[in-house]
């Protein structure tokens, strides 16, 4: 087993709010000090977890309908082989923006759904995580709300999807409930004892979960320059890494403190890549696949 610490805030009405889950007592005490003046009482509870904690994580950044490239990344980490081994514990995390401007929406969504079903058939305890990216967020809101103010960058994405579907996108829940449910079952974020996986940005404080949606799915340069005070490493996508580095090479960006990593390799641009991380215990290794058959 391994130990994790859950930090709770208790207000004057005895309501209990989970503030953070961390992997050591030092980080838990830092969080306690941060919230000490906000709550009536702060408690730290030790929580034992079984060894089904993923020893190996595979993280896929913005993928934008890129079936072949994602398959290439998974093969490079021996994911398909390890998925079939009962004694191997792995977890696959997609950071969001799975859909995008590139053609192949139906093929890619079918690939992702089959990947999830394969995981269930093999009886894996740890699910494949699909985080709701900025593109999925706006698509779902647009389908649910006929008056939704759709961002300009989403319009070519919607047009491409409608061309593939052969009907208006707002009919998707009726015409293809499987795809619609897949989109609805994406999650806002995922975290473990060391990492926070998000689609775009957060407020980088210990109470980061209170970040409003307009910020969570937006972007501000302050997110890049501000200190990360979450006590965990933030792994995110959405903004192309080359816009942060100022270099034309579409490789991952890591800040000087090594606690923020951007995995958007600009897959919709010429020479773009699908970026990923292979996390093994306390180390991570960069993986990437160059976009094939680029189409502007």
- Output mean pLDDT: 84
Assembly state (oligomeric): single chain
Task: Give the topology string: H per helix, E per strand.
Answer: EEHEEHHEHEHHHHEEHHEHEEEE
Proportion in helices:
25-40%
Distance between the termini: 50 Å
Give the total of beta strands.
Answer: 13
Largest sheet: 5 strands, mixed
What structural class is derived from the secondary structure elements? alpha/beta
Q: Strand order within the widest sheet?
A: 6-5-4-12-13
Describe this structure in words.
- This protein has 296 residues and is of the alpha/beta class.
- It contains eleven helices and 13 strands.
- The strands form three sheets. It has a five-stranded mixed sheet with strand order 6-5-4-12-13.
- A hairpin with a 3-residue loop joins strand 7 (190-191) and strand 8 (195-197).
- It is globular.
- The N and C termini lie far apart (50 Å).
